[in-house]
Amino acid sequence: MHLIDEIFTESPFFGYRRITATLCRKGYAVNGKRILGLMRNMGLEAIYPKRNTSASSKEHRKYPYLLNDFEVTRPSQVWATDITYIRMRKGFLYLTAIIDWHSRYVLSWRLSNTLDVKFCSEALEEALQKHKHPEIFNSDQGSQFTSDVFTKRLIKAGVKISMDGKGRCFDNIFVERLWRSVKYEEVFLKDCQTGYEARISIGDYFNFYNQERPHQSLGYQTPEEVYLNVPCVKVKSENWTGNKFMFAAKTLAYQKMAV
Known about the structure:
alpha/beta
């Protein structure tokens, strides 16, 4: 499962057939049905238009996608969420996070060893309690996000609900980019042994991500600076200190590991 996660994170457009072929080329004796089953357990789905294989519920209401041609220009306008697989040395966990679309700021997150709605609802409640409510909340059509407990909380807060269309690969692209960052820059490097270690590791990373990690798409500001509208001090890369050097060192370390 760890190898599947690494291949998928590097090439999220790979379906189970290409991942099976890649593993076979690396010398592993695997079959497609086994890989497909593991990917479903991990909550992984290739990023390209195709039949919907996400864990949705026919009984739950599906909401339309509201962000076509919608211009996001400020914080607290749109929030987004998703779930990803987090590997450990033995076993794995599921991670959900809620981000502010404009600033990429991670508003809340939770880890769980099951794909039930509870950890998603806890993350939503924390975000709503601590931050200004958004106009729109976007998610996929997974059963956690279409459940009554989740959607009714958003409706109660006066938030419009938006859901990715079936087979639409880039409707929630900013959360997908967050998953790529947290895996390359933290999960694959730390290889935590226990859930407790994973929670500490990911919590530390999200603090770094929000407060210290500059984003090119944000004009090399951090998510926190954009979310809180705090002017940043423009610095050259050779003058970065502290965690910014750590970010460069982590990225270089992973690149060496991947060779």
